[in-house]
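3.2 Worked example (two chains)
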Amino acid sequence: KYSIDECFVDFSAYEKNFDLEKVAQDMRLKIWKWLGLPVCVGIGRSKTESKIANHIAKKNQSFNGVCDLVNMDPCNKEYFFAQIDVSEVWGVGRKHAKKLQSMEINTVLDLSLIHIL
């Protein structure tokens, strides 16, 4: 269990045989038809990346509610990561965000470019 209004689903076993973006769109449509609830879906290689993808899907109508970071062009991914404040990253929180920002890590892109030894 995680939250009443969020869930994580591991589709990694189906990634090679199915178009996960289409599966996500189908899920959105069924949830809307059955429950009348609007849903956005973020596809990523981790829960954190999936939440970032979901954030992108919510903020950008061009994604039609589904953002697939796994198959996104790296240049596009960098563009969107540069638009998201590091404080939006799941688990960072205000205290950690301030510390990261003091080290000039202000965006998701900045955070993604860090190389930890």
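3.2.1 Second chain
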Amino acid sequence: YAKRFSSTNKITLFLKNETSGIRLKYKIDIAINTLVPTHQERQTLHISLWLIYGINSNLAHEVREAATPVHFRLLRSIGNLSDGVKQICDMRANLLYIELCRIHVLALMKTENDKSVASLLHRLEESARELLLVWFCQSNVKLERLTWQSPGDILYKVANHEAVHPVKGPSDLMKRLGNLRRCYYFSHETMPREPLVIVYVALLNDIADNVQHLDSPEDDCTTAIYYSITATQPGLSGIDLGNMLIKSVARLLHSELPSIRTHSTLSPIPGFRTWMLRNLHGSSFYNYFVVQFNFYSEVQASCSLIEMLKYVFLRSCGHYLCSRRQNGFALNSVANFHLKNGAEIYRLNWMGDTSDRGLNNSIGIMVNYR
């Protein structure tokens, strides 16, 4: 009791003449954590001092309001206007582009005033992201299926935005919307004619190992293959709509087609060929690899030359996906997206994509995540 009384006296002297509610709250926390030894005594003393000094539950709200920047309130008001959410989304896309070019921008910044402007733009982008996270949460987006009867402008936008396997024409798009294929996208009530993120699904009887043949008998579909997912709005980068879309589609397919028991992706590996060439540069193997690969890319009629390097490529690709890290994340962006959302690498597929794009990105190798 004597120790507690002594601590209370010291705290009282420490808090003497303090009238600001916010500063008083923090002073109480500092004093109690410094002078009072046990957790139970700290709790008792906290309650007593709060009652003595009249600190109430509105303090946290006052702190939050005081810390909210003016531009956050402005963005929130803009979001309530017609087409306001779209404008904020586009504005954030521009801010992210500036952030992406920050190395070049910083080189041009000669004064402290220039750097403070860059800092303000970064805080503005963070505030926009915070609002967009709330506006584009799971309950605010709508899952829709794209069919050949969908509005023409939406069909055009979906085909035009496809980034993984570019649509070659109307017949190609029609095939992707066929009976054993599905295409789903998220929309938002403030942007009803804008597909936010798009996923293509093939219904098969086994996990696919290439995109050239995504066909299956109609009565034997047990596997859903997610072979392309594309985000269309750069301003929504960092908002996990892709993960939400895949999980929403998986639930929908499970309810509509109970025979579907396996869900897997057939994913590209962008950047693998560049990474491998960079790591081989300077070695005696480099020139041989470049000659063989360039010949294969041009001819594409015989796999005999490249087949000798098959297991070297596959082993290197496995190392690239599983072991290469940057700041704790997978070096490959697609791998990082799937692995951080709980998927695992199931299989590497040799010659999974023999298009020019697939060969240039990953020497034709694709990967299944499930």
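3.3 Remarks
Residues 1-5 have pLDDT under 50 and may be disordered.
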